[in-house]
Amino acid sequence: MTDARVLSIQSHVVHGYVGGKAAIFPLQLLGFDVDAINTVHFSNHSGYGRFGGSKTTADELNTILRHLSSNGMLRPQRLLTGYVAGPDALAVIAETAQKLRSENPGMIYLLDPVMGDGGKIYVAPEVVPIYRSMLPLADIITPNYFEVELLTGIVLSDLSSFQNAIRELHVKFNVPNVVISSVPVTHALLSSIPEPIQASILSDDHTPGVVYAEDALLSITSSRRTSSDDPTPSDVHALLVRRIPGYFSGVGDLFSALVLAHYRPDRPQLADSQNPLSKASSIALSTLHAILVATQKHALALPEDERTETDDELDGVDPTRKVKRMRGRELRLVQEQDLIRAGSSEAWNGPHMVPWSDFW
């Protein structure tokens, strides 16, 4: 993509691949210039147990943004925002997103409302209402299932709850494109997933297989329909991905960057019942899964003391045990960069998200 510039506002670590470190390199590989503002500057991600650094204050963010603007450097074609720890800093980013949107209505904004995972919130609770206020500014949002619950107040447990949450994001918050990632597949949810989606599960060897509850993660895209006369609010696609054992960090950050990179609302008519969001998400999911498979393969080949099982008691006695384990599971972005580049080909023909025609 020629002369396309992304403004990335999210976390930074010196060692490893989370936040901007997981997003910027892939975006550059796919042809984007990236201007990066770091909301935190840490030694490494918190999963190591020991980390340190600084958080960028609201005043510091304003200073950076003011000088970028005065130099004519705040003119991105795309905006990507991720982890922000506190409400004051997030308020500055919300104001910036509003300003950029008013100056360039055609800018594509992907908002990743990073707040928590697995039922645990790891930002200040005061950021939740600010994120809600930012939703109408976004073209695409990429929350995980827990973040959808925080934004909508709806607990995702079955098909009906997903319908209510997605409808609220489209109608109440005016979000045109929603991607919900990494949804654990429960027995209740599995029974509602159509057979064509189950048959297309993405596994380590890219072959279909039997789907078991708790063995797979579900990703859903929902693109709002423009006709007010349409009885259903959106076109929904889904893809099941078989879980890869182990703990990986930066997965959501990489996924959001890949969705933004591959999202082309001006794409010509797509085959196989795809739309621009489902196409971008298909490429992102396939690329991400391949990188995770490669990362897992690398981790399993490490010496035994670098691939220990998680044990809070033993990790507490010897913190280096956890450090070694985390270090061995950093995303293999540099080593597997050809996987990232492959997604940019117009001839890409990997696994596609499957239309969920009777979702509504």
From TrEMBL:
Q: Does the UniProt entry include the keyword Methyltransferase?
A: no
The catalytic activity of this protein is classed by the Enzyme Commission as: 2.7.1.35
Q: Establish whether keyword Kinase is in the entry.
A: yes
Enzyme category, top tier: transferase
Q: Which PANTHER family match?
A: PYRIDOXAL KINASE
Please provide one cellular component term from the Gene Ontology annotations of this protein.
cytosol
Which InterPro entries does the UniProt record give? PM/HMP-P_kinase-1 (IPR013749), PyrdxlKinase (IPR004625), Ribokinase-like (IPR029056)
In Swiss-Prot or TrEMBL terms, this protein is called pyridoxal kinase
| Keywords noted in UniProt | ATP-binding, Kinase, Nucleotide-binding, Transferase
**GO process annotations (BP):** pyridoxal 5'-phosphate salvage
Q: Which GO terms describe its molecular function?
A: ATP binding; pyridoxal kinase activity
Q: Give residue ranges for domain Pyridoxamine kinase/Phosphomethylpyrimidine kinase.
A: 81-181
Q: Which family does it belong to?
A: Belongs to the pyridoxine kinase family.
